[in-house]
Structure formats: structure tokens, C-alpha cells
Amino acid sequence: MTLKLWNTMANTLEEIDPIVAGEIRMYNCGPTVYSDPHIGNFRSFLMADLLRRVVDQRGFKTTQIMNITDVGHLTTDDVADATGEDKLEKKAREEGLDPFEIARNYEKIFHDNAEQLHLRKAHAYPRATDHIPEMITMIEQLIERGHAYEVPGVGVYFRVQSFDQYGCLSGNTLENLDSGSRIAVDDRKESPHDFALWKIDEKHLMQWDSPWGRGFPGWHIECSAMSHKYLGGTFDIHTGGEDNIFPHHECEIAQSVGSGVGEFAKVWVHARHLLVDGEKMSKSKGNFFTINDLFEKGYQGYEIRYSLINSHYRQPMNFTLQGLEGDSKAIQRIRSLREKLQAAESESATATEDLQQRLQSARRSFDDCIDDDLNISGALGVLHEEVRWLGREEPAGEGAGQALEFLRHCDEILGVIFVEEESAEEELSEECMGWIRDREQARKDKDWALADELRDRLKDAGVLIEDGPEGTTWSRIR
Ligand SMILES: [Zn+2]
Are 25 and 63 in contact (CB under 8 A)? Predict the structure, then answer.
């Protein structure tokens, strides 16, 4: 395949060379379903979606798997052997619900957001809690091969010392880790670096039987067990956010390769962090945005999507509301050209030679950018230049048809030009719709005072009314 990606493992740009000719198998670390997904989560999921769309467009048979983490992800997760409270249980306590209810509620919000942002559906979204037997089998294999050991009454740990490649992805070899001082010493473990595969805990609200006692799995084992089940022991691409590199992905490699199921992922792709207003996003700083926050501000899915994909995945992205506003204007320009072309397509006119050649070469340049490690900003540069040219040229008939075909080709990757939003009317409250109807009636009755009053009332509710030659239209005030 002509697609090149930056492989974190090799620390270099690599051409993707499918293990099985004509097929790409990809695993994406998915959401931990304990809160509303935020824009940083979706930056990483959207990167996976772009990859999926490229592979689909190039004609490969794709298998894309994204896991749903619904148990075992503890609050202090920046060390291999995480500590603290289970994120699901903490949320369950705060909301006074059962952790399974929390998991299903937030899983649904994740799927809703993914659909609203036009992500293609993965081929499966396996949940950790549905794969406890597979995890237990893998832990047994690790014990058998000397890579894990049981501490009676406590659980099972991965023996990091036994795995020479530990640190191959992150550079966090045991030697490097020893020089850091953050690792808590625990007498029950052979080494402070060893991490839990199974934790015996009868107080944990989500618990299962295991050969070692009732408890729950460590966070990392789910991805090793589920990728093996759905993709086999060796597959093409594994993605995640850069914060997954260590410990999560380093531990996944140790477990999967250590258990002997295969070589695990060939290419590792990681999305850089997202900043908001130049700072790390945090609830206390008030610069924290969930996807639903942006919907509440009146943005459409395609606008949010465009804003989150338009910078390179390996560059830190700085999100600002002002930037989103600018991005929204940029995508509106492309969408209004699309509408004009669609209206002009039925006219009878042939395409000029010049137009055909231009579109062909633009399409090649667009593809070249995408193939170059998903250079979306480069690809968008090509697209916007063509949009400006087409806007001046105003092709009709066959020419408009060919221009639309070019836009469709770009949109197979971008997913922002042809996607349709729910009709805007459905989003307005019944009350506002009622005022709009009353105002129309008032205008018919020439009751200008009432019409103006209703206009003001709508304005206070955030709805702008405009009377044009084609009738009255409304839009949301931002
Ligand atoms: Zn994972």
C-alpha cells in the first residue's frame, strides 16, 4: 500500500505492508466508559477513523476493533501497576448507580457521539466485562510460560524481569524505570515494576470467579485478550493516544508476546495530546469540553469533526472556541459550493478539458498528502484551493458533476462535506417553534407590534429570525 505512517515502535515513517495481502486488521484503544467523552478522547478516535477510511478507500478488506473499557481502569493509571479506585466504581458512587449502569449509560453516549461525528462503525466494540474468560485463559498461559506469578490471596502479577523486550515501545526499560523514584515498593510483589493481571478483591462491585479467587482483571490484560480473539495474535495496526504508550501499550506487548499468541501489532500509531487555549484540558481550569458541550453551544457534528481532524495527528492540537468558529466558516464554504454544484448539475453543459485535468491532478495531490502519514492539513490545502477555483469558475452540467465527484472522493476520508445533519427544525424547542408560527401569523395579519415582540422573544432564546425574499428563516445565535 502507498500509505506511510509514523510507527512509534520503530520511531520512523513506514510504508504499510499488510500481513495478509489485501487485508488490514486494526485495533483501537477505545473509551473508558465512566464519563462524557471529551474532545481529546475523540481526537484519538477520529485519527483511527481517518485511518479506517483511507484503508477502505484504497480497497482493502478492513477489520477494525475498538474496545470498551468497563472495568479495571484505576484512577492512578500513569504507572504500570495502577492504584486507586476503579474509575467506574468511583463514578457509580458519585451518581448513586450500579457500575454496570454507569458503563452502559456512558457507552451509549460514546456511540451517540461517534455517530454524530460521523465515525464509521468499527466491526466490533468488545467490552472488557464480556471477556473475562478470555483474560483468565491468557493469564494462565502467562503463568505457564514463567511470565506471571500468583500471590495467594492477592492476585496475579506479570513478571516484568522475565520479558526482555519490556520498554521496546516507550523506552521505559527496567533500567530507566529504576532511576525514577515514583514506583511504590510492595513486599508482595517480586519487583516493584510488576503489574497486576488479576486482583483479588471481594469488595470490588464488579467481580468474577477465577482460579486465584474472586476479583477483577488489571486494566491492560483486556486489550491483549480481545485483540487476540478478534484479530489474531499478529495484526497490522494498533492505535491510541500518546498517553497510552506507557504504561498501557508497553504492558499489552508484554502480555500478548509473552503469552505466545503471536507478534502482536506491527505498526503503532499514536495521536498527540490536545490542548485547550494552550493549556492541558482540566475541569478545574474551566477549559474542559465534552463533545456534548459543543453540541450544546449549537455546533453541528461535521463542524466539530472538521475542527478535530484538521491538524496533523502527531502535532499537539490547540483547541479554541475561536478556532472552531473559524473552522466552521471554512467547512461552510465547501458545503455551499457543494450545494451550488448540485443545483447546477442538471444544466446541460460539457466539462472543459482544463477542468478535468485540474480535478485529476488535485485528486492525486490530495491522495499524496493523505498517504504521507495522514497529512490532513496538506490535503485540506489542496481541497480549499480547488474550492476557491471552482467557486470562481462555476462549472455546470457535466463539469459540476465531475467537481462533485472530486468532493465526494475527498469526503470519503474527511466525512464533513456530504454528511447531512438532522433538519434544523427538529432541534428547536416546541415553544420556539410555536413563537415562529405565531409570528408568521402576526405578519399575515399585519400585526407588526406582535411580530416584533415575538422576534425579540426568540432572540432572547438564542434564535435569530430573518425575513428574506424566499420567506422567513431562522438560525441559532452563537
Ligand atoms: Zn488498550
Answer: yes
- Using DSSP, state whether 266 is helix, strand or coil: strand
Q: How far apart are CA 273 and CA 279, in angstroms?
A: 10
Where are the domain boundaries for CATH 1.10.730.10 in the chain?
A: 279-414
Question: How far apart (Å, rounded) are the C-alpha atoms in residues 347 and 359?
Answer: 20
Q: Give distance in angstroms: CA of 270 to centre of ligand 1.
A: 12
Query: Which pLDDT band, with edges at 50, 70 and 90, does 429 fall under?
Result: confident
The pLDDT of residue 425 = 45
Q: Ligand 1 centroid to 131 CA: how many Å?
A: 14
| Closest to 46 (Cα-Cα) out of 320, 240, 260, 184 | 240
3-state SS class at 173: coil
**Residue 110 near residue 29 (C-beta atoms within 8 A):** no
**Contact present, 67 and 125 (Cβ < 8 Å):** yes
Class of 279-414 per CATH? mainly alpha
Type and span of the H or E element at 137: helix 132-144
CATH 3.40.50.12780 assigned to 4-271: no
Summarize pLDDT for 317-366 with one digit per residue, the tens: 999 999 999 999 999 999 999 999 999 999 999 999 999 999 999 999 99
Which residues, in sequence order, are bridge partners of residue 234?
A: 264
Ligand 1 centroid to 219 CA: how many Å? 8
Query: At 14, which amino acid appears?
Result: E
Instruction: Please state, rounded to an integer, the average pLDDT across all residues of the chain.
Output: 93
**What tens digit of pLDDT does each residue of 77-122 get?**
888 898 899 999 999 999 999 999 999 999 999 999 999 999 999 9
Sequence ranges of the chain with CATH classification 3.40.50.620? 4-271
User: Cα of 220 to ligand 1 centre, how many Å?
Assistant: 6
Residues 28-63 pLDDT 10s = 999 999 999 999 999 999 999 999 999 999 999 999
Sort 8 into a burial class: Cβ within 10 Å, 0-12 / 13-18 / 19+: buried
Q: How far is the CA of 241 from the centre of ligand 1 (A)?
A: 10
